[in-house]
Design a protein that fits this description.
Elements: E1 13-14, E2 21-22, E3 27-30, E4 35-37, E5 41-42, E6 46-49, E7 53-61, E8 67-75
Parallel strand pairs: 4-8
Antiparallel strand pairs: 1-3, 2-7, 3-6, 5-6, 7-8
Length: 81
């Protein structure tokens, strides 16, 4: 490991999984190049939610034939009384 550490850093990785509710500006994952920002998600190294809602994943093939996984947020529906 880098810097003489015996274990990798614990703060890197996925913070939420599919189907979990998230709040606005909540961090979804850190330092994963595998996942890309989808609908209602922003960021490059650290992906975060632009609105409150539920997390879901989609896969899409690029023009070069590589499959990419996108993290998306399905917004909450505000119900009026």
């Amino acid at each position: 490991m880098a810097g003489g550490k015996a274990r990798p850093k614990k703060d890197w990785g996925m913070k939420v999984s599919e189907g979990k509710p998230v709040k606005q500006a909540e961090i979804l994952c850190r330092r994963y190049n595998v996942y890309k920002a989808g609908i209602n998600v922003r960021g490059e190294g650290t992906l975060f939610a632009l609105c409150s809602g539920t997390v879901y994943f989609t896969k899409k093939k690029t023009s070069h034939g590589r499959v990419r996984t996108f993290i998306n947020i399905k917004p909450e529906v505000k119900r009026s009384k």
